Protein 1
Amino acid sequence: METLVQLGKNAAAAKYELQKLTTDAKNRSLFAVADALVRESGRILAENEKDIAAGVKKGMHPGLIDRLRLTKERINGMAKGLRQVAELVDPIGEVMESFKRPNGLIIEKRRVPMGVIGIIYESRPNVTADAFGLCFKSGNAVILKGGSDALYSNRAITDVIRDALRAEGITEDAVQLIASTDRAVTQEFMRLKEYVDLLIPRGGAGLIKSVVENSTIPVIETGTGNCHVYVDEFADCDMAVSIIINAKTQRIGVCNACESLLIHEAVKDKLLPELYDALNKYQVEIRGDEKVAQVIECKPATEEDYGREYLDYIISMKTVASVEEAIAHINKYNTKHSETIITENRENAEKFLNEVDAACVYVNASTRFTDGFEFGFGAEIGISTQKLHARGPMGLKELTSYKYAIKGDGQIRL
Amino acid sequence: METLVQLGKNAAAAKYELQKLTTDAKNRSLFAVADALVRESGRILAENEKDIAAGVKKGMHPGLIDRLRLTKERINGMAKGLRQVAELVDPIGEVMESFKRPNGLIIEKRRVPMGVIGIIYESRPNVTADAFGLCFKSGNAVILKGGSDALYSNRAITDVIRDALRAEGITEDAVQLIASTDRAVTQEFMRLKEYVDLLIPRGGAGLIKSVVENSTIPVIETGTGNCHVYVDEFADCDMAVSIIINAKTQRIGVCNACESLLIHEAVKDKLLPELYDALNKYQVEIRGDEKVAQVIECKPATEEDYGREYLDYIISMKTVASVEEAIAHINKYNTKHSETIITENRENAEKFLNEVDAACVYVNASTRFTDGFEFGFGAEIGISTQKLHARGPMGLKELTSYKYAIKGDGQIRL
């Protein structure tokens, strides 16, 4: 097996080739890779079957088995995703700013690839193709470390991509897979700072925490979402119920789902009975504070509940006396992901937008819209919950950096 | 002494106040702080004297003593810097982008403060005022950890700033100093992720490496510069000499000084004798490869020399056979800071601009222009050599993040 350092060197060499590729060459390759994935789907499915069999044998949770499983349809979905990325505007080469200094220097701020991106993810084989596509279109080499349970699948997908690239005359080291199930290798990968410019963990809170704690490579934190809906005293209660049901139940296992509800005391008697019936239809468990419990049946909410990302049919509820109290509660417990206020009052809406500290702050809409596709980016590598570099949904532009190109005619500093 | 966690909590509370300040309030406070520094300069100088005495007693290098020393003039310089920051455009509140989605959602990308910024720096007391000014104007709370040798000076400056802020009705926790000389406290500070959004180390390579290795807070790497001048075969040799002398000798101890020279073989016989004489005037030691040694007197350059940031009157020199070889050498040895090509050939110039991996890439100009003031940013917190978030000179904008503010009228995701 090649060592990690060798993978790093390969990627670092590939990045210089990739940054020079024309948009046409990149798009042609993305289409070729998409076709290859469909053409070679038999081979990929056969390898995937090995992962599934191993997973079943070790008693993996059915939900995880489902996440791991590939089908012809899912492979077609991966190919479709790559073709969509080919259709997106190429971010590379854009002159972001240009200005002339009094001494005659002309300074251009040019958008350039990040270089080498590392992605650490759990056992979702589709991420292998998705991550390659986004990194490749934005001119980056990528080193992938997928979940151990998907190793056969990831290796098959990566091999197909590399073969297709080679046939197009493109360096196959545009994508490399760390084909190891050794945790120590993952730890070592996080310290491959000499070769890797950016590391993105995609997965649960545990994975992300481990990467943040151990990486020496700059990291973008993605994904954990303890998202709130706040129903203001000036809310349209029917709209509130509709948005809460959507944000809580439309898809429970995602980071932009609602986990906690704040209700202004003035509307609790009107809102809660109607909301209770609506949540009941989805068998959502309610954990409320005392004032909520005075109106509807619920379990008591603990301090710990307010900080939980349930990813389940459970919601915590708390009453507040003002928009200020709601904002303070959110800023204390949230994960800086997505927050929404339901109100017809413009002043409270602006206050909430300005003062809540989160990547995406909404007025009268579901938190579920925090998504690269819903934002119109055409793609998404993840949702950043940190403030450095990128915040919220990350598309192609968020996988780029810039450089200053400066032209002179002999200027020296005085 | 207050614990670090308490400082973190104070800063986190202050950030919500600071993000709400109007531009006028911020500017008024900056002027008030500038006046206070001048008014209280006696008190600051008395405290600085304690640091100087301790430094002299322990035999500190005269260069470091000079860096540590404050004078009336230097304090006036700090005050002037704050007044200049007050004159700069406030980056906060800018709507960077705004778009409407087909479902009617209006998405605004708004520039917001980073929140809490941590700065770790060496024994230069002026950084205390500079860093406060830039963080404050960009709406951030700042926690400072200055060099232990400057503790009395830093405490005096911070006290004056805090007093002046309080008198203006602004939270004094806009700036806090970690008043400890214990290295373990600095290590703990680097892991104060719950309260600090961004950590910027300012100083030598050792400090920066330590922060990158140990911080769990997102870091922006600044400062180390192994900068090259490449004299192409199509160079104007007089211009080359002028730029090399400027880049090497105008100020030797800075990150944008030239440390290494690459010379196309075709011009070495013409360039080197003239350059030798010019460098000799500054007593610059030359370490060259064999082909350089055939033309001028020099010490032999080792492999290690090519990777060195001398910060001294020393320069390494290497001949190359092509612009491609020059680019490959630079990409192998540089620190991604500033690189320049001297050429009259447009094709080679564009090749160099595109393919050299560095924050600032120049044609026919000195590397010494990599500087926030020279770029017209009006200020500088440091020069980033990483690709995440900010690259090259960092001004006020680079101390900000953004959030998405999204307005709907009841939209739910289907």
Note: Chain B touches chain A through 66 residues (CB under 8 Å).
Protein 2
Amino acid sequence: MKEISIQDLSEMGRVQRLNLINSCTGYKSANLIATQSLDGINNVAIFSSVTHLGSDPALIGLIVRPTTVPRDTYKNIKETGYFTVNHVTENMIADAHHTSANYESNISEFDKTNLQEEYKENIKIPFTKGSPVQLYCKYVSEYYIKENDTIHVIASIEKLYYNEELANEDGWLQIDKGNVVALNGLDAYCLPKLIDRFQYARKDKPTESFPK
Amino acid sequence: MKEISIQDLSEMGRVQRLNLINSCTGYKSANLIATQSLDGINNVAIFSSVTHLGSDPALIGLIVRPTTVPRDTYKNIKETGYFTVNHVTENMIADAHHTSANYESNISEFDKTNLQEEYKENIKIPFTKGSPVQLYCKYVSEYYIKENDTIHVIASIEKLYYNEELANEDGWLQIDKGNVVALNGLDAYCLPKLIDRFQYARKDKPTESFPK
């Protein structure tokens, strides 16, 4: 095993460290966050920091760095209070990645990619067409993380849309059925396939699979 | 598409909601967090909430709920200041899942599974043998998330170990080469494979793959 100390990290080049540290915590979710500015310009941006926070109430978290791209997302969330989270599928990866390019605020990434807006009844903010899981989220609060000048945004899930082919009768969404991808680091897109699903773990009992 | 409102969620059974909301944000990292109590008892527990926070300084975050399992992990981190993060591989999934069983604090999950401790020079806390990426982390601070009574623990990466077969010359670790798994929801383990890695996105230029 190669060993890297905190001293080695501090002496490493910026890009090398960025690649290493972004890939060392494991797979990350790949989501397109869509927002709308107050003057009606849509924005869509790839995020790998959307995480589950709790199910009752249904809350998610995401990390934003206000001083760097994609800053429009955070600005729009703060101004309108809402955003959508859309799963990235295998056939969207090149377009999803392109949303990380540094476009001006008056340009919609929907106009610069093959990603298409999808609108739902009574919701102004667009979703991404073809995403098999889509969340309509409301800004709840934020925590400033002083250690590295980032913001942990907390949001509630107000509405949830999913392709019924993914749904299990106990509520679980089997997302590999929708060809949903995961991120390995900043820029590598991976396609996961289910190995096994296990029942609730009980002490001194062997791990058991769910009946297929 | 099936539509679920916040009202539907509040009326849903607890397990149904737990399964749905845990699987609706996308894939999650699968990590074994190992800790040691002040009286020397090891603990290892599966976590899906370890996330990248920043690369300079190298920081990670994880979400803990102090009132539920795995509470020993949080207690040990607070008492000793350190923990290790170990990637879960395909052949470890049944044992990794079993660490979520509710064992008493005086029992080490290493004794109840085939997971094996691995010790490194000058580090008291164990790692998990066979994990192709292992992080030695130091508690830095925490943020109490009042919206759902959870704690966002912030930690620095003090040392990083990886299997050199995963490493790319620009620092990126290609973790599918180590058969690292991802989680879909609470209990479903998935094996991702790389589709493509893309170069830095530039406006009005097509997405380009990294040279293979």
Note: The longest helix of chain B spans residues 14-23.
